[in-house]
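Job type: complex structure
Entries:
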Amino acid sequence: MRTRFLAIAALVMVIAAAIQLWWDSEPVTPVDMTRRAEVKAPEAVPAITYAYLPQYSHSTSYLRHRALVEYLQKSTGLAIRQVFPDTFEAHRRMVERGEIDISFSNPMTYVLLAQSGARAFAGIVEPSGRATFRGQIIARADNSAIRNEQDCRGKRWIAVDPYSAGGYLFVLGHFRDKGLSESDFAEIAFAPGPGGKQEKAVLGVYAGRYDIASIREGTLGILEGKVDLSALKVVANTREYPSWVYAARKGLDPDIVRRIASALFALSENDPEHERILAAAGMRGIIPTTDRDYAPCRELFSKLRLDPSKVGLE
Amino acid sequence: MNLLRRLNFRRKLNLGITLIVLFVAALLSVFVTRIAANALIEESKRRGAVLATNLALRAADPMLSTDFLRLRNLVDELLNVDSDIVYAFIMDDRSQVLAHTFGRTFPLDLLEANEAEDGHLAVRLLDTGRERIYDFAAPVMVGGREFGTIRIGLSRTKVLDVVNGMIFAISGLSVVALLVAVVISAHFAKRITARIGALKEHAEEIVRGNLHLPATTSARRNCWEQRLCGRTDCPAYGDTERRCWYVKGTACAGCDGRAYPAKLAQCRQCEVYETFAGDEIEELADTFDVMAHALRAHIAELRETERDLTRQQGIMRTILEVTPDRLALLDEHLRYLSVNKAFADSLGLTPPEIIGRSDFDIFPRDTAEMRVAENRAVLTSGMPIYREAQDHRDVIPSAGGSNAAPDFGPGRDEWFHLVKVPVSDETGRIIGVLSTARDITAIRSYQDQLIQSQKMESVGKLAGGVAHEINTPLGIILGYAQLLQEDVPPDAQMHQDLQIIEKQAKFCRKIVSDLLGFSRQTQSQKKEMCFNNSIMEVVSLVRHTFSLENVTILADLDDRLPVIYGAPEKLKQVWMNLLHNATGAMPDGGLIKVRTRLDIMNMTVTAWFADTGTGIPEANLQKIFDPFFSTKPVGKGTGLGLSVSFGIIEDHEGFIEAHSPLPPGFIDEDMPQGATRGPGTVFRVVLPLEPQGAADLPDTDPRAKVQEEEPQEYPNNENRTGEGTL
């Protein structure tokens, strides 16, 4: 009996020791924390800067235009770096300050950028195949009180950004045409934070926080899978406006502009490689445009009695 | 181990439970705390991984926009949010630090200490010398491209502090559990051992013989109280000592009459069993009670049997001890197995001195040889032996048996009837000899007496016949002698001769008359008569003559004047004979005392004739009534007096007997001062007041009756009346 008892005790001790060993068996890397030095933020490499108006998050912007930027670098031989302004306003100012060489923005922003000397040289063909786009007024599908523009009177409205073309300005112009001014709404709010503003506007209505939202046509397609689109309905569409536009900052070497423009124009839907690049960027093709093509936008500014030079200061 | 065995059960139980709890506590401390600690470490690592991954996601946009402020805010926030985080820093894809929490300077070795592997999180344990840190390296991925790396450090030491706290808590809980377990086990052990102790005491009580103490001391309900059956005829009803399932043939439904434990299978289905059956200890106590109950019953039976046996043994012993027969049981080796007191007394030994010994040890050699040969013959032949033997051959003369046999004095042979029978066991094998020796000396004596009586009867009848025949010639001789006397002168020689002839003829006629009387060939008329007068007539007649021989007669007669039915002359002859015999026994004179007493109860009257003479030897007492028995010289007595008297008294349906010497006090006070006397003799004559046909009523023998009722009593002086010297 004594032997058995001792055997059990020994077994328990062996198991305890094994556990102890197993516990301490993790490999350890010694690190000398005393060897220290100051570190400095890395300086940016000189390059042509390319920016996408931050209507989406930086990551989305990067993902959409990364392939295109790489294509441009390769086909032009230029060092091109995508930069990410946090807001529309930051984008406009960076263009003004020359920190953005190539700007890809909506036409309404372009009208503002043009005031600082930037010039349009290319426009895109929308996934719809058109070189134009429009804004949309959406509401919850179960909101039976809103069936047309007039029903929006007195309702809470969330828009993308005061500078957003499809997400605000086009729809505001549309309401003006229908006889509604800003004061006819209970509230006009803008999607908060940097980037992702189109999605936030949709989510604002989807969540019931707002009655209607103004978004750029095509946004709902981007949100497919994230939001139950059947819970939403399109109340109205605005008229067509020129699509997104590539502009070169004032003072950029025209040769560089030409090389970039020709590379952009060379992108063909029929080339699988180009088609992948275009699809990632949300476009079907890039066509030449001139500043004059954006007269409708300037008209909208005047209709809204906005001074393009003062928009953005508010 | 001996020490452990010597520990009492309660301590063992306590020790065992304590050891178990200690063992479990140790297991908990070693295993559970380790496992839990490991889980905690793993959880911390997961937390670190989540924080690093989350930071990587959140850092993507600021990195894209090269917003160093936001990057710095991100790492600072992390440090604030989680105190276990030691550091956090963000590197770009060229391993250049964009933001960190180390203040002004950055530990350069940390850069190389860990790195994300193929776009996945990597965890590594770093040892800074002061503490150990889990380093998490999470890649910042945008669109599948690695933009940089997030590194955060989670203090393993702080996590271990939590683990140690947990171990401490578990250890504390274990100690508390140990204390609680010890208290509970002590209580539990106390209860268990108390019950076992009670059982032990009960068992000891049983060993001491106290079977009435119940083992189950606690008050309990019983089956009839549970069922309210009211079956008072049930053997279990009212039995508070035993549970019903121990009782055979209970009246409850389902009882098949079998006894415990066969009926237990049935009882297990019963609600009473389910309600009342206790644990093993209680079952043990119940079994003890049942055992005590059964033991009591068995012991009572045993005692009853023992009493019976003892009683029978006592009876048997009494029979064996009291019987005058000499009994002895011998084994097959002819050694004594058992002897009775009579046998031992005959040898002058005690039974224990004889048992186990052989005949050679206790008898003279020749006797022993004969006995052994005889016993061996019984053993071998299996045939019993019956024979008669005289004491000098088979028994020691001084041996017992004298109390049963008449004492004929020293030198007399004792006769025994010997029976030796074989003793067999149950298989029929002879295993011993039972020897019985019965003293038949008295029977032999009676046989002799009977032969003598028969002889005397024949002689009597012969003598009677002869007397009758010679009575007539004798009368003629007497007549002629008297006639011839008239023919011769009175002074002539012839006259004197004739007188002698006449005298002798008369003497012969007297003999003939006595012979005839003895043989009852003479008849006399019976009538009612006064017993006292009959005696007084004779006394008066002889008083003067006796006084000349210096013999005094005292008469002490019952004044109730008993009247009997008898022949007066015959009885007077008896009295005369007795008085003459008394005088004959006192040649130098003496005292004769005559006493009569009436016994109304037995309807008898008794007369005593006592003298102070020479007495009769004991050996002669039985013979004095025989005819022709005389101690007188030839020519002085016929030897027929007492036998004639015997015949007369017998004819009156009474009896006569003699006692010598005189019983003390019978005559002493009547003796003159200074006079000497012999042993003396007293004759006692008992007669019925109204004689009946003795042949018709054999059971009313007055002799037997009187002997029975007053065997040795003699009337004392206070009772007598009419006392005086006549």
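Summary: Chain A has a mean pLDDT of 87. Chain A touches chain B at residues 1-2, 12, 15-16, 19-20, 23, 26-39, 41-42, 44, 57-59, 61-63, 66, 83-86, 194-195 (CB under 8 Å).
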